[in-house]
Design a protein that fits this description.
Layout (H helix, E strand, L loop, with lengths): L10 H29 L12 H17 L3 H7 L10 H7 L11 E8 L5 E5 L10 E4 L5 H12 L7 E4 L4 H4 L3 H4 L17 H9 L2 E5 L6 E8 L4 H15 L4 E8 L5 E3 L5
Length: 272
Amino acid sequence: MGKIRVKTVGLEDQENEEKKKAKARAEAKKAAAAKQKEAEGGPTAEAPVMSEASKAQKMKKKESSKGQSRSTKYVTVAALVDRNKKYKLAEALEILPKLKIAEFDETVELHINTLEKGIAGNVTLPHGTGKQMRVVVANQTEDAKGVEALIKEIESGQINFDVLIATPDSMPKLAKVARVLGPRGLMPNPKNGTVTPKPKEAMKKFEGGQINFKTESKFPILHLTVGKLSFGDKKLADNIKALISAVKLRSIKNVTLKSTMSPGIKLDTASL
């Protein structure tokens, strides 16, 4: 026969109460000790004091880690650009090839801060972008099965085009993938010429160098491709001026020119 445990009513509650009081006294004692050490200038368990030598070493490690994020070649070419200066377009285009650090033909980019959001349009660059534009047409009347197949590809994450042109009767179908295409700037829109009853004509324009531009949804910024380094100063200048004219100088706050891997060069908008 096993042992029988006898439980006295009232004693369990009393024991629990004593445990709570003991725990409270221990915590109060710990807090008082920490407070006294802090008053004396000594370290506490919650906030250990770091020596000046340790602080300096920690700072050095941070600076070292920052330096490792940039290659020696990048740091060398970055020294050729005065970050506090705004360069005339001709000066900037003369410096740009000297900043090349990649072995491939780098793309030349223009980053524009506008005065407000919602700026959009299109422009045909005189010398194109240097990139073969992948243009796809969605035409519900002539190729309904093709439109359905395209939608399935987009839904699965396959976006194999740079520009999507649609006939008006295709738009209700494409509404299914608007959430995918919209944030990427690929949703057809009558304002930029990608919704049209004459898709073949629009296709020729985009393949010939027409580009669309639109500020980011949350910020007044445009990121645009204006050619390749191999274009040379004259062709790049022509493309940049055509683009600035389309965006309109009065809408522009500042402009930065760079190639794929180079540091940015601030431009003097008066020279544009």
